[in-house]
Amino acid sequence: MKIFLLLLIFFITSCTTPIGGAKKVDDIKPQETPSIESIEAGLWMQMNNYEERLKTSGSRLKDKDLEDYLKKILCDLTSEYCEDMRVYVQDVPYFNAFMAPNGMMVVWTGLLLRAENEAQLATVIGHEAGHYIKRHSLKTWLDAKARTDLMVIMSLGLGVGGVPFGGDIFNVTQLLQAGFMAKHSRDNEREADKIGLDFLINAGYDAKEAPKIWENIIKEMELGEINKPLSFLASHPAPKERIDNLKEQAKEYKNKENKKNTDKLKEKVKPHFHKWVKNEIRLKNKIEQTEFILETAFKGNKNDYLLKFYKGEIYRLRGDNSEDKKDNKEENNYDMAINYYNESIKANEEFPNAYKELGLLQLKIDKNEEARANLKKYLELAVNPEDESIIKSYLN
After folding, report:
1. By residue range, what is the domain housing residue 104?
2. Helices (H), 161-238
3. Which is more confidently placed, 328 or 221?
4. Which of 33, 117, 369, 379 is the most buried (most CB within 10 A)?
């Protein structure tokens, strides 16, 4: 059986057009809609229903100015497809954006926090537009359907050939199917990367920014819990391959422009920036990972005191871990938080929140005199604070 399966895998993976693969799917044309009886029309209908729910969903960030800004980026990249597309922002603190086959694009706030400039943001938006134009959703669905049919035939054939039907065979056919789908997913990702970079360059963005956002995401993953070698079933190209491909492709073009539009992006996300930072901190991912995300988000921000303050928040919210420190010689979370709050105050003595959080933490660890001094300073600096009565009660 093992020899037979090895030969079978070799035969199928050696095919130029894999057995069971879906037929060729043409690119979608501007203003094109699928015929009502087609499979694609069914996918559109499902996505139209999802879009209607998203419009009124509590997870949608209802900021027309921000959505219009993202739509303009998308239109600058894709030009003639512009009127077919809509953009929504979803308040989810993770790195992601996706585009549905009906022209709906969804951008998560975690991406907006992590993008250092508009060129990096446009890299991801252009990538997703590439999936849409190449109809990758439809291709994936058709491939899945075709390969499911193939695996049923294979299972029956193996059973007839003397190999026990079901059980292990079902697991083998599932594994083969997953491998096929992953390969096609990786191919789709490579194609979307290339199209996205073409869009980026033609729109006048700095192509050197394209690999940088992926480098940052890889670094974030390495610092976090997701720190395992990618399996052969991974749906994306190997990270190094993706970055190398983008760098090589960028060398082929000589940009007339090299715009990054850093300030423009910062201006558009400014009304929500601090909320997104707080949401990221509340996820309580690994400390090094969260620090890296914040350092990326604050890059170019002259208000260094805010980064120091939020780093203090990272450690404060992790709680007391003094028992985990050998002989109490190492600084624990609360020690680190106090250090960062003090650094924030040193960088800006007029920032009230640093005094408040420092004072409240000092109360918690019985440093009462220092706490009182910092809480008093908070009340002096804060303008009509909502928690004034609560803070005063701590001082009595």
Report:
1. 20-251
2. 168-202, 209-223
3. 221
4. 117
